[in-house]
Amino acid sequence: MFCQKCNIEKEIIDFKGPKARICILCQKLKEAERKKQYYLDNKEYINERTKIYWAKNKTTLNEFQREYWKENKEKLQPNRTAYRKNKIATDICFKLRNIISSTILYALKHQKGVSCLKYLPYTIQELKTHLESLWEPWMNWDNYGLYTIGGERKWNIDHIIPQSKLPYDSMAHSNFLKCWALENLQPLDAIANIVKSNK
After folding, report:
1. Average pLDDT by consecutive 10-residue portion of the chain (199 residues)?
2. pTM of the full structure
3. What's the rounded Cα separation, in Å, for the pair 6 and 8?
4. For residue 94, how far is the Cα from the chain centroid?
5. Can you give the residue ranges of every domain in the chain?
6. How far apart (Å, rounded) are the C-alpha atoms in residues 99 and 92?
7. Residue 21 burial by CB count (10 A; 0-12/13-18/19+): exposed, middle or buried?
8. Which of 116, 148, 182, 191 is the most exposed place for a label (fewest CB within 10 A)?
C-alpha cells in the first residue's frame, strides 16, 4: 500500500486498515504535531491548570509514588541506577548537581528534603561556565574526580576558603552562601587539593 503522507510504499500491516490512506507512523506524527500545536496555543492555560492540579493533589500523588516505589523497588531500582549512571556520564550539569548536592548533604549531616538550588544564587549552568573559565589546559570533564595512585591526573572542585572555616548547619546560614559563592569555588589539581587540605 502507498502512504499519501510520506509517499512511501509500505506493507498493509503498517496501516490501520485496507482503506487507510496514511500509514500508522504518519498518523502518530500528525497527532504529535497536533498536540504540540495545541500546547503552544494554550500554554498559559495548561500551565495554570497543571499548577492548580498539583497544588490540590501533591500530597496524594507523593504518597502514591512512595507506595508504588516500595511495592516495585526491586523491579525499578536497576532501571533507576542505570538511568542515573548514564545521565551522570552524558549530562555535565546533572553530574555537577549531584556533586554539589552530595557535598552539601554531607556537611549538613545528611539532612534531606530540600533542594540546594533554592539557596544557591546561581544555576548549575552558571557554575559549569565558571569552573570551565578557570580550567588549566589539561582539565576537562572526563578527568574530574578522585585521584588514585598511579592513575591519570584528576581535578576537583576546591573551596578557596575551606568548608571547615565556614561552618554552617543549614542552607539558610550566612556561611553557606560564602562557602558556595562562585568566587570561592575553583578547579584544582586533585593532588594539590589533598595537599592543601583545609588550609
Report:
1. 87 86 90 91 91 82 82 84 88 90 78 76 93 95 86 92 89 91 94 84
2. 0.55
3. 6
4. 4
5. 91-196
6. 10
7. exposed
8. 148
